[in-house]
Amino acid sequence: MGQPPINSTGEARTIPVIEARGVDHYYEGQGGWNHALSNLNLTIPHEEFLCIVGPSGCGKSTFLKIVMGLLKPMRGQVLLEGKPIEGPGTDRGVVFQEPALFAWRTVIENVEFGLQMQKVPKAEARRRAQEVLDVVGLGHVTDLYPYQLSGGMRARVAVARAWALRSANLLLMDEPFAAIDAINRMALQDYLVDTWMKDRRTVIYITHDIDEAVYLGDRILLMRPSPGRIGRFFEVNAPRPRDRSSAEFAELKGLITEEMHRFSSENTSIQEDAA
Amino acid sequence: MIINTESSLPPGTIQTGAGYSNPPMAFSDYERSKKRKEQFRRIRRGATGVIVVLLLWHVMAVAYNLQLILPTPISVIQRIYGMLTLDNTRWLYGPNVYVHLLESLRRLLLGFGLAAILAIPFGLLVGRIRTLREYVEPIIKSIYPIPGIAWIPLAILWFGLGDTAVVFVVFMTAFFPMFFNAEAGARQINPLLVDAGRCFGAKGLSLFYRVILPATVPYITTGLRISLGGAWKMIVAGEMLASSQGVGFMLMEARFQFRAVDLMTAMILISIIGYLTEYLIVRLVEKRTTEKWEVR
Fold it and tell me: Does A118 touch chain B (CB under 8 A)?
């Protein structure tokens, strides 16, 4: 991210899409409170593809839930384009870990859902949904019901449903392809990169797969567990589509993996000290 | 598995593998004939059961000379035919049989329909809103164990002998299964679906109508089915005690007149109508909902 991103009218946008200030959150667990997020400060500029990786329990999903508006942090706040987040809304597109499609709606009706809630005229919603489904390669199955699709197709419908919202400048994805087998996952990642290149939005993408993070992200945030907090940022400058077999790719993957192991071994030693 | 290899091979291909060269028939034909056989077998077995019971019935009635209290199946069938074709010989029940049936159906639809309109939305709300649940749960749970029949005396006291009393007890019977099923359904919805609905802009009424209601449909149809069965039983009970029209009245009147044939005829009509209403109401809902979108 060398120069500041420019919006359609040509002026540089100075307000970041997301600004998290001192976010703290706890969960009630066995034997007390789990510190899920500790003093998290994070700024995400426009049109950045940010990948968040980290071991389970590092608070990455908690942070995303806060940005989705489904969870209020106990301390601190998150600003969405300068305004505090009050609840869920169509100014963000979301993709969950499971596709969470509506079983009673056909593929195209699922994609239209958000547009329908925004009272977009029917014909226009249909056109938009068809357009997005074409991009993710599902233009031919618009009238099927979700149970008739494969897992990979369902994941693509979930992505399309979020992407169809024109009002959403920010897309939030919580391991959307985690349940897909490795070969199909790569194809899905290519669809996602393609879609993003054609229609750039800010993306926060959570994954536990380092390979996926390096393939997709402009910037990678590695989080540290217990309590969940910022670990380290990595920039990825390689042009897309990226070459998974290149030396730089492998090097960066190795670096992140190493750092992650260092973080988790620090944690074990802390726990051993305490015991 | 049998594979039709012929269509997938390019023309002129010489087939070598001996086992694959000549399948007995195409897979789809094989499937279809298997299905037909199974269907035929099911019908045959079912019919055998029915015929055995009818035979036993006939033998009992004739052998012990019980025709007065156990008429033979043939005479019952003749009577059904006579009733439905309005053969009015020795007709002791006022208006013709269709008037009685329509009267019972009207009460059923009124009591059951009112119960459905109130119980389903109310059940969904109670299932989703904890505060409301805490307010109404004790009162609902204390009324529920009172059987529908136990409401009949009070209903007669309140509304007098007649229509309203019957509709009231039908309502009381039909309400609870639909309420409890809608409530349970609304409580077990995958929270992720509700989150998805909210994130894509649904809230309040639109969330209920667009997400919670359709996600609960399988539970709702179960509730409809149980309620409808209960309501139909309660119609008969209510009419036996509190009405001078309807199939329940016919039953009771046939006993007073010591007409076992008419009594059994009315019972069989009750069975047929009960089956038809279930088919028309519940199956219709299912065909338009879960059968379209659920894995078969």
Answer: yes
B160: in domain: yes
Instruction: Using CA atoms of A185, A187, A193, A199 in order, give the dihedral in degrees to the nearest 10.
Output: -110
φ/ψ (deg, to 5) at A212: -60, -40
Q: Do A87 and B198 touch (CB under 8 A)?
A: yes
Tell me the chain B residues in contact with residue A113 when contact means C-beta distances shorter than 8 Å: 197, 200, 202, 210
Taking 60 as the threshold, does the pLDDT of residue A192 lie above it? yes
Q: Which residue of B has its CA nearest to A165?
A: B200
A128 touches chain B (CB under 8 A): no
Question: What is the count of structural domains for chain A?
Answer: 2
pLDDT higher than threshold 80 for residue B165: yes
* Cβ contact B200–A104 (<8 Å): no
Instruction: Tell me what the mean pLDDT of segment B276-285 comes to.
Output: 88
CB A202 within 8 A of CB A48: yes
**A70-105 pLDDT per residue, tens:** 999 999 999 999 999 999 999 999 999 999 999 999
Which structure tokens are listed for B29? 């034909």
Q: In what side-by-side order are the strands of the sheet with A83-84?
A: A32-44, A18-29, A75-80, A83-84
In a domain, residue A267? The reply is yes
Neighbours of A216 (CB within 10 A): 23
Look at residue A30 and tell me if it is in a domain: no
- Cβ of B215 within 8 Å of Cβ of A104? The answer is yes
Answer yes or no: is A252 within a domain: yes
| Confidence check: pLDDT of B94 > 90 | no
Q: How far is A84 from chain B (nearest CA, A)?
A: 16
Q: So what's the pLDDT on residue A271?
A: 52
Q: How many CA atoms lie within 13 A of B146 on its CB side?
A: 13
Spatial separation of the C-alpha atoms in residues A228 and A35, rounded to whole Å? 7
Residue ranges making up the domain that contains A151: 98-168
Q: Does A32 touch chain B (CB under 8 A)?
A: no
- Does some domain include residue A199? yes
Residue B194 C-alpha, separation from nearest chain A C-alpha, in angstroms = 9
Task: State pLDDT tens for residues A134-151.
Answer: 988 899 999 999 999 999
One domain, residues A188 and A247? yes
CATH of the domain at A194: 3.40.50.300
Same domain, A86 and A102: no
| Interchain pair A88, B199: CB under 8 A | yes
The verdict on residue B140 lying in a domain is yes
CB distance A98–B198 less than 8 Å?
A: no
- pLDDT tens digits, one per residue of A138-188: 999 999 999 999 999 999 999 999 999 999 999 999 999 988 888 889 999
Q: If you write DSSP's letter for every residue of A129-156 in order, what string do you get?
A: HHHHHHHTT-TT-TTS-GGGS-HHHHHH
Contact A46, A17 (CB under 8 A): yes
ipTM of the complex, rounded to two decimals: 0.88
A165 touches chain B (CB under 8 A): yes
Q: What are the φ and ψ backbone dihedral angles of B144, each rounded to 5 degrees?
A: -55, -40
Classify strands A202-206 and A49-53 as parallel, antiparallel or unpaired: parallel
